[in-house]
Fold each of these.
Amino acid sequence: MYPLSKKIKIGKQATVEKDHFSNDEIIPSATVQFTCCDCNHKNVVEIFPYESGFPIIQMYHEERVLSKSQLLENKIVIETSEGRRHFGDLTVKDLPTLYFGTDCQDCYSKYFCVFSYGEWQPGLTLLIVSGVWKYEELE
């Protein structure tokens, strides 16, 4: 897992086997499987709550990696509800939203994953994967 620091072009969305995890499914981590768009290799990524990922604002702040409109147009995130703006302008399901870069374990194509994690209601903690997208760095 790594942060993205250069502007990127969003490619195809990879198929994710399971994108919603709750309570015990998250402890100690959530196992996310996605299929590479290029070689069809099934990749596995472990998301550890409070350890994995980087704040999504790092992607769209000053349009360093992507713009807010690119994230919204590709349905990667939504605009945060008024009562939850403390989580940032853009979120997944109004929960704290993070991302990370990863590579296909077989052909090394570059991907980024966006997910949210937090308590949805008392006693219900969710980890929701918005998706995994292939990307190319722009020069």
Amino acid sequence: MRATIATVLLAAVAGLALVGCNDTADSGSGSSKPGAVSGSNKPATTPTYKITEQDTTGSQRTVIVQVDTAENLDLVYKAVKAELTDEAVYLVGIECSTGGSSYDRRLANGRYVLGAAGAAEAGLPAGTSEYQPAGEKCPA
């Protein structure tokens, strides 16, 4: 049991590291309309989400978001980024609102560096944005 918890915690920390996953270019390429589902002319819809936790002080802040579906999580991440205004490094966790434990309901992780203070904290350029899916579906 202890090894399983340690493994899950290690996976969560590794997910937050987000090695090599950049989301700095928000615009799509090719002939698709921005926000359109690939292979479709139908615009993708940002799922309903709720910010359930958000640090408001410090140069590194955690934001936890809950969703009811695992669809279009990248759009949820982009919408949450648009709400962040203070200069800091934001660690964004997107979780399923139904079922599972705090370890298995994580669907995606993101990191967003906002402003000079965030850049100084992260050692990365301001505006750096990283996003990585962590799970495929909401647990039952």
Amino acid sequence: MSAINNLQLKQIKDITSLNDVDYLINMKLNKEYTLHVYEKKKQIYFIDLSDSTKVDDEYLYNYTILNGDEFFDALKDIIQ
């Protein structure tokens, strides 16, 4: 979790194909989210699944990861 807390993100408008996703993470907090993580492009997309009938900009958050080394190392450790 500290790797997620330390992420520095910059919001972007770019959309990347779901076929290129490296990691898919489902999370439930106060809402349900899916995180699409693209290691090569250093991007992460948060999709708010709390209302699955709506898929528009209001529910899709796209970011470039500015400092992802610790985050990607943590993901690789979890997968192994």
